[in-house]
Write a structure and sequence with these properties.
Blueprint: H1 3-12, E1 20-26, H2 30-38, H3 40-46, E2 61-68, E3 71-83, E4 87-94, E5 101-110, E6 113-121, H4 134-157
Antiparallel strand pairs: 1-6, 2-3, 3-4, 4-5, 5-6
């Protein structure tokens, strides 16, 4: 990469670039929450129904389209870290849009209650469409984790 290219990247990066963090506790053991965030069939129920494949193994890659507001957004994931029932990290990109980010799911359990700490770093690097705004990212992740995943896990533990 040339110095000019590096300078342009740094120059266009927002000064307040900070990760999106969402925390949630679930009245479920860590094994149940881990399955919900790593099993393709379960992920299709609370996350993206268009997920075609997912395996929690370092190096695993998948792509799938998500329709939104009349457009299709190609989601491109590559698993970069797996510590079963503790931590899952994958690179998150969108086909056709510049930017590279990563999401991490960290779990801890105490007396049958699981705490999930979700972190999306590099979200601000994704450019090219208003749907990628920080506000939409925060709202989207809160919805997926604090509403959809929570509702998905609730019936199993009521």
């Amino acid at each position: 990469m040339s110095k000019d290219t590096l300078f342009r990247r740094v120059k266009t990066m927002p000064i307040d670039a900070k990760p999106i963090v969402v925390e949630q506790t679930f009245n479920a053991p860590v094994t149940v929450v881990w399955q919900a965030i790593t099993d393709k069939q379960q992920m299709q129920q609370w996350f993206f129904e268009t997920i075609t494949e997912f395996t929690p193994e370092v190096g695993f890659e998948t792509e799938f389209n998500v329709p939104c507001e009349g457009k299709n957004y190609l989601h491109m994931w590559k698993v970069t870290e797996v510590v079963p029932q503790l931590r899952l990290v994958y690179q998150w990109r969108y086909g056709g849009y510049p930017g590279d980010s990563a999401v991490s799911w960290e779990l801890s359990e105490e007396e049958g209650i699981t705490k999930l700490t979700f972190t999306h770093t590099g979200h601000e690097t994704i450019q090219g469409d208003d749907i990628f705004s920080r506000e939409n990212g925060v709202a989207g992740w809160r919805y997926f984790i604090q509403e959809s995943l929570k509702a998905f896990l609730q019936p199993k533990n009521s």
